[in-house]
Amino acid sequence: MLQHITVLSGGMGGARFLQGLRHGIASGSLPGVASDAEVTVVANTADDIWVHGLKVCPDLDTVMYTLGDGIDLERGWGRREETWSVRTELAEYGVEPTWFGLGDRDVATHLVRTQMLDAGYPLSAVTEALCRRWQPGVRLLPMTDDRVETHIAIADPEAPSGRRVVHFQEYWVRLRAAVPAETVLVVGLEDAAPGPGVIEAISGADLVLLPPSNPVVSVGTILGVPGVRDALRATAAPVVGLSPIVGGTHVRGMAEQMLTAIGVEVSAAGVGLHYGARSDGGLLDGWLVEERDADQVPRLTEAGVACRAVPLMMSDHDATAAMAAAAVDLAPSAR
After folding, report:
1. Residues whose CB falls within 8 Å of the CB of residue 192, separated by 6 or more in sequence, listed in order
2. Residue 148: per-residue pLDDT
3. 144 contacts 161 by C-beta, under 8 angstroms
4. Tens digits of per-residue pLDDT, 253-281?
5. Does residue 153 sit in helix, strand or coil?
6. Does residue 292 contact residue 269 with C-beta atoms inside 8 Å?
7. Are 268 and 243 spatial neighbours (Cβ–Cβ below 8 Å)?
8. Handedness of CA 106, 111, 112, 113 (dihedral sign)
9. Are the beta carbons of 84 and 104 closer than 8 angstroms?
10. Cβ count within 10 A of residue 161
11. What distance in Å separates the CA atoms of residue 182 and residue 236, rounded to the nearest whole number?
12. 155 φ/ψ angles, rounded to the nearest 5 degrees
């Protein structure tokens, strides 16, 4: 029976997958997984940003709020029943950035986090403290305690170089990823160290899952932390991923823009081959694609990755649990 499952997660997509995984464990609908199985989540922190003097960790908070039943279900991020008085007052003062709004309830999380960081606590300890309130039912680990930030180069005819660089959050929130991304720059990644417990969570797992999170700016940045790829290649656990690309595009988010920026084919097979087969120096033992992409399965199997086509739409907890069950089922044949 699988007792320890580790998931490398981004924000909304990863959080919804984790809901289904946790639901499947609790309901006993994951054959081969112990009813008291422990889930460890290694979360992306390269989306982090400082706003109005506060440290904001969008992916950590989205996972924490979603699993702690505090997420705004309609938006998929931020707090439920949120109010916006602080944002309104800041706008009246003309304080930038006006495009990144912090809700009144959400501000409390960022205040606590910033105060603890200023007091000398690392992000991992801060996250553990925040989770005591939210009880997400998983062990939530930042990928690193070091400062890492993703920036996107976009065209700017008025700039001397013909382009400028914006923070990932500005590209996503203000620009809505509506302009082409020319380059993805992850500042500080090469010098970052894995957060406490990250390598152990991978090496000690019975199964490692790559959920349908953005393969470039979510899972990709976690993989870029020195030591993480080596740990994935060395672990005895099967490594199984689920495609974030369905029918040639992303379901939600901006995976298509990010994959295009790094020259990766925008397809279920393209992402799987980007991760690569562990038997050939890559990361994957198994890869799940959506049923409508079944014609791409042979490309993965020929590359040495066990692959199946299954329903991959996270329409509700049961459907998402079924995705997790398919990943668990694929795992033994993947090694």
Report:
1. 143, 144, 146, 148, 225, 226
2. 98
3. no
4. 788 999 999 999 999 999 999 999 999 99
5. strand
6. no
7. yes
8. positive
9. yes
10. 8
11. 37
12. -70, 140
